[in-house]
Amino acid sequence: MRGSGYSRPMTKWEYATVPLLVHATKQILDTWGEDGWELVQVVPGPNNPEQLVAYLKREKA
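and the corresponding structure tokens:
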């Protein structure tokens, strides 16, 4: 079945990676969230698994 011909524009995103400090994780994420960034995932850092890295995204204007 074919669509009605209505085409919604594709959402475009920008991404950021942010190192998280254990003693300030909430503050860091709150600050980025206030700027419109959405948390996608938190993973261990590539060079140091004890250093967490946050991946964030927000819609491009």
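(Above: one complete record from the training split.) The longest strand covers residues 13-20.
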